[in-house]
């Protein structure tokens, strides 16, 4: 898979004077069934998260509050996404090195994932990632 398989997805937004509503349906708005949701919050200024790839996991990343950047890297090229709206998310396909930085204070990053947590699905070593990309 390459960077071109990743993309920004705009979610439905039901605008209402009482407050907006957005929803995500696995297999409909995003190209996988949702098996897990996790979120990053209380991220201190200057902190980076991520710095790994997943062998098989599909993910969808939404900024629920505040803002942050996510950099995706398929081993050949990189792209920086600035996330600051809760009705946009970025679909991250498998075998994509990623890190998140530039978290604003109070920001919340929610991630929907295609499988339960599995440490054996991680590639945490950048050289190992580059070797795996070269071999594929
Ligand atoms: P990790 O995915 O490594 O986050 P980051 O790359 O941003 O540091 O997760 C951090 C820790 O949390 C790691 O010990 C694994 C654990 N974890 C779970 O137990 N379940 C989960 O669903 C996730 C995402 C992480």
Automatic annotation (TrEMBL):
This is Sugar 3,4-ketoisomerase QdtA cupin domain-containing protein. Residues 5-133 form the Sugar 3,4-ketoisomerase QdtA cupin domain. InterPro entries: QdtA_cupin_dom (IPR008894), RmlC-like_jellyroll (IPR014710), RmlC_Cupin_sf (IPR011051).
């Amino acid at each position: 898979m390459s960077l071109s398989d990743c993309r920004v997805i705009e979610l439905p937004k039901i605008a209402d004077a009482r407050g907006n509503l957005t929803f995500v349906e696995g297999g409909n708005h995003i190209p996988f069934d949702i098996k897990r949701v996790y979120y990053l919050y209380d991220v201190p200024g200057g902190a980076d998260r991520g710095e790994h790839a997943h062998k098989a996991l599909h993910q969808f990343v939404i900024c629920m509050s505040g803002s942050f950047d996510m950099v995706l890297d398929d081993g050949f090229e990189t792209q920086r996404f600035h996330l600051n709206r809760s009705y946009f998310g970025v679909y991250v396909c498998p075998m994509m090195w990623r890190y998140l930085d530039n978290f604003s204070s109070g920001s919340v990053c929610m991630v929907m994932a295609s499988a339960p947590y599995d440490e054996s699905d991680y590639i945490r070593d950048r050289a190992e990632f580059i070797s795996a990309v070269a071999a594929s």
